Amino acid sequence: MAAWFTVAAPLIPEILRLARPYFTRAPQQTNAAVSDVVAVQITELQDVAAQNAESIKVLAAEMQKTLATLQEASMTLEQRLRHARRLSLVSLAVAGVAVAVASYALAT
Description:
Layout: H1 3-8, H2 12-23, H3 31-107
């Protein structure tokens, strides 16, 4: 006999117990039981849909706040960028004047 069989033999009843529900038919339910299950499922789905709608409203409100904050931050950064650009242009002009003065001083 194969060596694997001695290892697997104690597990066979457990494997059969776990596999049996997949290969056996469920008992037929009556129409009343099926309609009760369907009614319960419909109620559960409606409750979940209502909860989802509320969650979507909350998420939309939070997203709107986030977008407003991002727009404010964007405007602030644009102002800082304009200020930095002006400062760099002024620095460039001062450097140009300094080069002109230095070349004039060296020429004379």
